[in-house]
Amino acid sequence: MTGTSDPLRSELLDLALEAARRAGELLRDGRPADLGVAATKSSPIDVVTEMDIAAEKLITGFLSEHRPDDGFLGEEGASVAGASGVRWVIDPLDGTVNYLYALPTWAVSIAAEYRGETVAGVIEIPMRGETFRAVLGGGAYLGDQPIRCRPAAPLEQALVSTGFNYVTAVRTHQADVAQRLIPRLRDIRRGGSAAVDLCDVAAGRLDGYYERGLNPWDLAAGDLIAREAGALTGGRPGSGPSYELAVAAPPGVFEPLRELLEEFGAWHD
């Protein structure tokens, strides 16, 4: 089931799968039907925030019950050092604007680090009915089926996804970078969830993905899943994926894509 013979990694993966499943059900079934058409601007945002926090509390509560000495890093404020060498990196709701608008592209992302290295990752996409998972060295899976990224296409035939910041000045520069990239690619997509985009690279549904401004909880599980599916991931040349820049693509697409992003200054505002 888990794709690994390492008992710790198997345990962490199984716990992440169950926590993500429960959180996904909470978010899917607990979303008010009229959330996207609420009368005031603050009301729907507040509800999304409440759902975010409730999902993170569910995840951290479940994991703490089974592994009380582990640490946490979560988008909604969970930050506990822990004493076991294991830290959970959690995004309880990646794609909050999609969730607000009842678009299906949102996910629960849970990764487990051991001594600073990501060893297990799960991304649950409830509205697709999909669960992506990986353990370090054990391959990537969609459900019980192993997945691989696409063979490299020439860059001009590559379908690449990205995301945009919510700060206007940052988003404007990101749009300039995208405008310069579009003539060099097949096309650009904007899905609205980094976790889902990384899974789609892993599953061969995209030829690449890049974004500036991602946090550890946006990246941790999806980065592992993409790498275990055969993709390369990184940031600026010589660096891993980070807030500055994250890039994921099959070998042969990754290198020229990252070169263009460096040339176009995708790593700064």
Q: What is the strand arrangement across the widest sheet?
A: 2-1-3-4-5-6-7-8
Helical residue percent? 25-40%
What structural category do the secondary elements indicate? alpha+beta
Task: Outline the low-pLDDT stretches.
Answer: none
Along the chain, the helix and strand elements come as HHEEEHEEEEEEHEHEHEEH
Q: Strand share of the residues?
A: 15-25%
The largest sheet, given as strand count, sense and whether it forms a barrel, is: 8 strands, mixed
| Tertiary shape | globular
Work out the helix count: 7
Radius of gyration, in Å, reads 18 Å
What would your notes on this structure say?
It is a single chain. This protein has an 8-stranded mixed sheet, with helices on both faces. A 5-stranded mixed sheet has the order 10-9-11-13-12, sandwiched between helices. The protein is an alpha+beta fold and 269 residues long. The mean pLDDT is 93. A hairpin with a 4-residue loop joins strand 1 and strand 2. The chain is built from 7 helices and 13 strands. Belongs to the inositol monophosphatase superfamily. Its EC number is 3.1.3.25. Its cofactor is Mg(2+).
